[in-house]
Design a protein that fits this description.
Length: about 220
């Protein structure tokens, strides 16, 4: 603990950036985690209610229901599909594919490049701190006389705190970055599956009875 405190007070110009990067990285991870939780959809609960709205109130009722939601699949994916449903199923497919590729996936990757950048920079700053400290320590060892060598050896141990702190910051951030990327890939599959379910529901939706005009045409 004494060596750590010495590193904090003596090499504060390395400790402060490493500490700030660690704090920033933790904040971004929590932020991204909350965004993922808020955007997630329980499809087993949502689909029956959505199907009921679609059958009883039609596309407009289902569209209103989806717009009231805050999660990603109803609010953004299904809304994009339903808004173009009058143009045919091909238009619905294109609209949902476009919104996945151009809007939802970029938002799901929001903060991930920054998290990875902080992890890499923290590692490099930690290594830089170690290298600079050890260069100074070895220079002092070369000039030391008598019992000074033991003191310089402790300086080498102190220098390693830079690398240790950088790795402590980087390893969890890299790990969470990998987990978030895996979550994005899995969520993309879920969105495509949900889009296909919407297509099937629209195909199965009754078109309604023909109006009086059709009856007159049948008599002619």
């Amino acid at each position: 603990m004494k060596a750590l405190w010495t590193f904090i007070t003596h090499d504060w110009y390395f400790f402060v950036p490493l500490f700030l990067m660690s704090l920033t990285g933790l904040t971004l991870v929590i932020w991204r985690l909350l965004l993922n939780i808020n955007g997630n959809t329980n499809m087993s609960e949502f689909l029956p209610e959505f199907q009921k709205k679609l059958e009883s109130e039609g596309v407009e009722g289902a569209l209103r229901y989806c717009r009231k939601r805050t999660d990603i699949i109803p609010r953004r994916l299904y809304v994009a599909g339903l808004e173009t449903s009058k143009q045919g199923l091909a238009a619905v497919r294109r609209a949902m594919a476009n919104v996945i590729e151009l809007e939802i996936l970029p938002d799901l990757n929001f903060l991930l490049p920054t998290i990875l950048a902080i992890a890499k920079i923290a590692t490099m700053v930690g290594l830089l701190a170690t290298v600079i400290s050890m260069i100074g320590t070895f220079n002092e060892i070369s000039q030391a006389q008598g019992g000074g060598v033991g003191q310089q050896a402790s300086g080498i141990g102190l220098a390693l705190f830079g690398t240790a702190f950088g790795l402590v910051t980087a390893i969890p951030l890299v790990f969470t970055h990998v987990l978030f990327k895996a979550w994005v890939a899995q969520f993309e599959v879920r969105m495509k599956s949900a889009a296909q379910k919407l297509i099937l529901l629209l195909q199965a939706k009754p078109q309604g009875k023909k109006g009086p005009t059709s009856s007159k045409e049948g008599l002619l």
